[in-house]
Amino acid sequence: MKPRFLALSFFAMAGILASLSAGSVSAGAASGRVPTNVDISQRHLNESEQTIAVNPTNPNNIVVVTNVGHREARLPAGMFEGVSFDGGATWTTHLIGNNDNLGDACCDPSLSFDEYGNLFLTYLYEIENEVPIALSTDGGVNFNLIANVMQPPKTTPTKASGDNRGLFRFVDQPTITAAKGEVWIVVNAGGPMFATGAPVTGLGQVGAFFAGEVVPGTNNCTYGDVAIGPSGQVMQVCTLTESGQGGGKLFVNVDPDGLGPAGFGSRVFVAETHVGGFDFIPPQPDRSVDAEPGLAWDRTGGPHSGRVYLVYTKEQQNESDNTDIYVRYSDDGGVTWSAGVRANDDQTVNSQFLPKVALDPTTGNLAVVWHDSRLDLGAGGPGDTDRIPNDDAQFWGAFSTDGASFRPNIQISAGTSNSHDSGNGIDYGDYVGLSFFGGTAHPAWADNSNSTGTNPDGALHQLDVYTAAVRMTR
Ligand SMILES: [Ca+2]
Ligand SMILES: [Ca+2]
Ligand SMILES: [Ca+2]
Ligand SMILES: [Ca+2]
């Protein structure tokens, strides 16, 4: 959740035009097979900002948590959770954090399973200016709070209501990652990035989080990610720019000994993105996008073990709306980085945005997914709901064995969505979900195509959270 600027009236008009159109939904990819789409939430109002995790001790166990629509009758609305024990085919769903044992959850969920089967969840509270960490030891069926961390210097919390709930808080965008006997969280603490971690020795065996550390050189650097390396070292990435549609620099910092006494080192500049903190593009006209950098560190012991990958959004010409998805990698722990490789293989000047990267711990292979407007040329047909170019989007992805090149792109969503038609205020939200294990990628994205016929709000209205099992073939 980040502070929001007013949408441009042009986009409001586009939305009105969209609502007057027939709103036909086209299924099917230009080429190849679209994997079976599953509507996880099947729920009125908007679900957006997904996190998804596959249990490495039982890969049929998959858990999703998302924001829920902000127009609930009473606060807090909590968050939506879906749990599957059959590889994502069917889901048990309910709300969590609606003043239950997880408190008054606002939003911004982040999940991570570790090798023991511990499932960690962080999110933002509606009111409290600290960051909760919850743990499930039964595959997401039950969670319990185990810590509230990163209480920043004293500030006055703001209790907003309606669509503004949770905004203008002090802490923002927490991300949690667990592996190698550690669990780490990073969060923007009202200026710099703040990090803390705890040791993990088994299922349900989580030590105390240490007092935490400010990551050097990260003031106004946010919307990032955290990854754990093969020797327990920790990397965070963030994008420097709090507002505006230009600029956008990505920096990483590394804590070389994880929970050991050394702190995060100096920041390393990686890339210019031309994507500001609030870059408005036609398919995300109300919320805007940031570069949404993400990390994946290869701990497999395989051919590229130790390689750390960074995904991000780049706008080719500043303010062109031609955003693309790029990946770079480092083989020296983040000191130097490869040139950027474009993951989306279309030949259009349309928008690709909100990328997510995940690494398969059983192979070291890489999956990247994103929202994609390539088929919306404003000419009708698949990919276009309203004859306005580049305002509708599908969900696409690609696999790679090394980050140096990508396989042909795969259309993942069966339908075409229009974020403005959702009335969500934050469009698709700020991020999507992806987990990759045993050769199958499990993305989670916000979708209002109603391609499955199961969205109770119908087509091109409020969003449901969708998933698919996307197999990486040889
Ligand atoms: Ca350390
Ligand atoms: Ca593009
Ligand atoms: Ca369109
Ligand atoms: Ca819904």
In words, what does this structure look like?
There is one protein chain. This protein is mostly beta strands and 474 residues long. Helices cover 3% and strands 40% of the residues. It has one helix and 33 strands. It has one helix at residues 9-20; strands at 38-39, 48-54, 62-67, 79-84, 92-96, 98-100, 103-113, 119-125, 131-136, 144-149, 171-179, 182-189, 193-202, 205-206, 213-214, 221-228, 234-240, 249-255, 268-272, 279-281, 284-289, 294-297, 308-315, 323-330, 341-342, 352-359, 366-372, 394-400, 410-411, 433-437, 440-447, 464-467, 470-471. Strands 1, 30, 31, 32 and 33 form a five-stranded antiparallel β-sheet that branches. Strands 6-7-8-9-10 form a five-stranded antiparallel β-sheet, with no helix packed on it. The longest helix has 12 residues, at 9-20. 59% of the residues are buried. The model is unreliable at 3-31 and 153-169 (pLDDT under 50). The chain binds calcium ion (CA) (4 copies). Residues 376, 378, 384-386, 388-389, 391-392 line the site of one calcium ion.
Topology:
Elements: H1 9-20, E1 38-39, E2 48-54, E3 62-67, E4 79-84, E5 92-96, E6 98-100, E7 103-113, E8 119-125, E9 131-136, E10 144-149, E11 171-179, E12 182-189, E13 193-202, E14 205-206, E15 213-214, E16 221-228, E17 234-240, E18 249-255, E19 268-272, E20 279-281, E21 284-289, E22 294-297, E23 308-315, E24 323-330, E25 341-342, E26 352-359, E27 366-372, E28 394-400, E29 410-411, E30 433-437, E31 440-447, E32 464-467, E33 470-471
Antiparallel strand pairs: 1-32, 2-3, 3-4, 4-5, 6-7, 7-8, 8-9, 9-10, 11-12, 12-13, 13-14, 13-15, 16-17, 17-18, 18-19, 20-21, 22-23, 23-24, 24-25, 26-27, 27-28, 28-29, 30-31, 31-32, 31-33
Bound molecules: calcium ion (4 copies).
Residues 376, 378, 384-386, 388-389, 391-392 line the site of one calcium ion (CA).
